Amino acid sequence: MIEQLKIVLKKYWGYDAFLPLQQEAMLSAVSGRDSLVVLPTGGGKSLCYQAPAMAMKGLTIVISPLISLMKDQVDALTECGIPAARVDSSLDQVERDEVFERVAKDELKILYLSPERIMSAGFMDYLARIKPAMIAIDEAHCVSMWGHDFRPEYRQLGRLKQCLGGIAIHAYTATATQHVRDDIVEQLHLKDPKVLVGSFDRPNLVYRVKPRADRIKQVCEVMDRHKNESGIVYCIRRKDVDEICAALKVKGYKAAPYHAGLNDETRRTNQDLFIKERIDTIVATIAFGMGIDKSNVRYVIHTGLPKSLEHYQQESGRAGRDGLEAECCLFHSGGDFHTWKRLLGDMEQESARIALDKLGDMYTFCGSAECRHAAILRYFGQTLDKDNCGACDACLDEIDQVDDALVIAQKILSCMVRLEQRFGSHYVAQVLTGSKEQRILECGHDRLSTYGLLSEHRIRDVRQWIEQLASQGYAQKVGEYNVLQVTKAGWDVLKGEKTPRLLKPAAGPAKTSKVAKDSWEKVDRGLFEHLRSLRRELAEKSSIPAFVIFGDAALRDMARKKPCTREAFLDVSGVGREKDKRYGKTFVQEIQNYLRRAGRYEDDDD
Ligand code: ADP
Ligand code: ZN
Q1: What tens digit of pLDDT does each residue of 200-234 get?
Q2: Can you list the domains of the chain with their CATH numbers?
Q3: Residue 188 — φ and ψ, nearest 5°?
Q4: Is there an atom of ligand 1 within 6 Å of 139 CB?
Q5: At 598, is the secondary structure helix, strand, or coil?
Q6: Each residue of 519-533: pLDDT tens digit?
Q7: Under a CB-based contact definition with an 8 Å cutoff, are residues 398 and 511 in contact?
Q8: Nearest ligand 1 atom, CA 293
């Protein structure tokens, strides 16, 4: 059976090997044992049911929560030469009847359905009559109220098992929490399911977390590392989206905004421009992203603190789904905490408390000097199996800790005490740096023993340290004016019993991570750019997203192997038979032309 799956993988997708746990998941599907497969975004979940569907007799039903996702999947399958279709509310009656006709004629292998469709009157009986081979449930966490995207329609899917005579059901999700997993098994009535949980680490993502200073400058720096590549810039508020987007446009970047304040049509247009790669960057609130499975997003920038590590993992996880290196940068400030607190304000008490706790965890993550991959994994109950990930600011040595953290922390904390714990961080920082501001002089705070103790540092840096002390629990902000108070742990620091971590931003530029080096290894970048434009033109002509034609990984492999014959073209990872048939000639020709221009290709005519 494994051999057969491998043949299918090569023939339709052009892949030579399984990704971690794919083989186990596929075997479970072909053997008809229920399964719950938990893999991170980009882990290759779709192939876990699509490849078995092609290796098995009969029709596979896939249930997916979003029309846009279904559409992309069906487009991608069709491009691979797989007979697939979807039935959802965006089709009219004629189109739907056409699909059912293809089902009746046994012409389809994979059928995508929305949960509403399955539960509509008489549909279950119809399904029982056509006897599908298996049911795959995508984004299965939507059945759980504990998850982040609960969908009431998904709840009904619990009836499938019984109504369809115990049919094999396979559930797929990227949700990491145990609670949600147990709930999925229970709600869907999975029978003795094979549970497969992959590592949540995304080694191809490079994380960088920095205090926010000049946000436009910081955003541009990241974007300039990714010229002509796709990326998402997330903002907390609509106002920030509009401001940042406008500033980027003035500087000549190809960007468009996305948030709930724009009308449907503008949102749709901007999203479309992004997917078709006519703009590089979408600037958005977190309303953007669900249902986007653009595989070649090369950077995700957060211009403010995300709501929780779950949110951060999900939002930053939209980068690099194709497994190639991608950069996730987060610029935060203490003020974000309060912005969120205000936005969360009207939640009922219990949920507000949970939300605040999660926000606190997120804040601590930002202020820490620990490996980012390790910290995220730990949050989700897993451990990183290496000491240095080579793909985060901490491990790349881009953040340094100050050597005299204890002394600096003591100066800051004792200044809070001298100020009778009645002032906020800006004021405390002003006193420490020896500001001559009127208010300080009037209060006589220039006569405090802590006045000017940190005058050799910039006020901005002192404020950052105050934030770091707060995020590590040595000080807390209290009341409407966020006055700083020293906590019990803070007193331990004053007594010299504990040493906080204080960071100094490194002066040097961002370094290149190992993942980035590896995935560009031997790739002719000029050729890659050529193939990328070719892909964009072809996509434009046939109105499908560019990455559906070939992913970035396949293009890089072409620009690496430079195949000049159709036979060699089939060797490229990500080129299956149908893709070769459709695009082989055009791409091989482009490669030949490129090499000829570079004087590196000789054919018989020359
Ligand atoms: P998920 O749904 O888990 O986020 P996808 O199914 O979208 O992940 O797959 C992520 C990317 O990995 C896609 O570009 C897909 O084509 C690619 N992929 C999947 N399986 C393999 C494989 N065995 N070898 C190489 N690439 C793969
Ligand atoms: Zn690391």
Answers
A1: 899 999 999 988 888 999 999 999 999 999 999 99
A2: 2-197 (3.40.50.300), 205-398 (3.40.50.300), 401-503 (1.10.10.10), 520-597 (1.10.150.80)
A3: -90, 0
A4: no
A5: coil
A6: 888 999 999 999 999
A7: yes
A8: 7
